[in-house]
Design goal:
Structural class: mainly beta
Order of helices and strands: EEEEEEEEEEE
Radius of gyration: 14 Å
Helix content: under 10%
């Protein structure tokens, strides 16, 4: 499984960005995979941002993104999205997408995800 993030960049505080995560693989079936976004700021631990089940009907948000971020997925494009709104400098980090075969495990722990993208940098200026 290959995951490729895009959409990061430099934005002013209060602005918005939409991140994308394109998934592919030789026998990859998008609906069979739970997906999630994590982020890591310099000197900080990796942090769960948002997750979405393979069915697309169940989502979970970390405390940092509740009310500001929206996760979604498009099965026709094998792509997951993260809409970031009302950004603050504290949202500056490398954002990673992750995938795993559908599981009953929680979405918020990175150790339960097998596949990771290379990350996309989000920088929010004050």
């Amino acid at each position: 499984v290959r995951l490729v993030e895009s959409g990061g960049g430099l934005v002013q505080a209060g602005g918005s960005l939409r991140l994308s995560c394109a998934a592919s693989g030789r026998t990859f079936s998008f609906s069979r995979y739970d997906m999630a976004w994590f982020r890591q700021a310099p000197g900080k631990d990796r942090e769960f941002v948002a997750g979405i089940r393979g069915s697309g009907g169940d989502t979970l948000y970390g405390d940092s993104g509740k009310g500001r971020f929206t996760i979604s997925r498009d099965g026709a494009k094998n792509t997951m999205y993260l809409q970031l709104s009302s950004l603050t400098p504290e949202d500056t980090a490398v954002y990673y997408c992750a995938a795993r075969l559908k599981s009953l495990r929680g979405l918020s722990s990175g150790r339960f995800f097998e596949y990771w993208g290379q990350g996309t940098q989000v920088t929010v200026s004050s």
